[in-house]
Amino acid sequence: MVDAGTQKTQCTRPMMIITQKITSLAYEIHDGMFRKDEELTPSQRYLAVRRMPSLLEYLSYNCNFMGILAGPLCSYKDYIIFIEGRSHHVAHSDKNGKEEPHRARAEPSPNVAVTQKLLVCGLSLLVHLTVSSFFPVEHNIDEHFRATASWPTKVIYLYISLLAARPKYYFAWTLADAINNAAGFGFRGHDENGEARWDLISNLRIQQIEMSTSFKMFLDNWNIQTALWLKRVCYERATVSPTIQTFVLSAIWHGVYPGYYLTFLTGVLMTLAARAMRSNFRHYFVGSPQRKLLYDVVTWAVTQVAVSYTVVPFVLLSVRPSLAFYSSWYYCLHIAGILVLLLLPVKKTQRGKSTHENVQLSRSKKFDETETSLEPNSFPETNSVRSPEAASAHLPSNQ
After folding, report:
1. Annotated catalytic residue 223
2. Residue 92 annotated to the active site
3. Which of 92, 254, 334, 356 is catalytic?
4. 176 close to 71: Cβ distance less than 8 angstroms
5. How confident is the model over 106-121, as a mean pLDDT?
């Protein structure tokens, strides 16, 4: 008999990636061909597809060998730029969204980036195979451990066990990114030192994940391309409770295991509570370096524990062990989150876009302009588009 977890890894992962690509392209075609420019957000306008792809283009985008097994997701326009061999000719944007001056450069080599990412893969796999066996997540619900361990021990073990479980995701996503880079896909211009950047479709930033001082910071750096997909197909388009709808869609997309739903429903509560705490208290601590350091240390510890608490059902998958874990913690973070939302005023936030998406969208706009002048039959532009700087100036940061 094949283990259910193995089946999930081998069979449903390609289906999950193709689902992302099909829905992304469907919305981009709808935005480009059936909606007026003034109805679109800046991100939707930049990514809009103005011409129906051919069957070959459609199948190539969905089933190319680089991303068919583990992704990561990329936009249709980024893929077309690459497949037509023009990714290193298109002007790119720096981290502030400003366009780099055009300079003649040789075609960049991905060898250094691929080597670095393969080293990260090897280290991540080694850590997962060694450390995770000593700190299994399932030990959090061991009856003897629950009955005898002190609260500090429970908290520390929860953090370490989930820390040990993360490297398997680091391995899979970094390997997928390296495969795309080895094929020449993923180039995103040069940094201020003239070094080539190969992170266009990178799915995670490990340092930012492990040093996250807020729930949002963790989510922004974890499974980045899926977060962008959820934002583009759900969060930006939802008219009622976009955060809740986005988390529910994420749970449905992951599969049918009840643990996914417990994790993402808990994630809604944690996200809203963290947003309320940040908006009500952070400004008191940013006035001096000492208070800011204290704030960062405390919020790092709280964030790491909250994230670990939230994702335990994601690892355990089933209802009974998940509820056994939460009951052993007396649902304390659920209760704390509810109290925060009931007692603290919640500021209504507007939906913006991340710096990572700013760069991608600026890149797509430049591609439209370049393609119009070089190949008039591809992606003809019929509507005017504002510059990336002007668009981003009207978008507040997403809390």
Report:
1. yes
2. no
3. 254
4. yes
5. 92
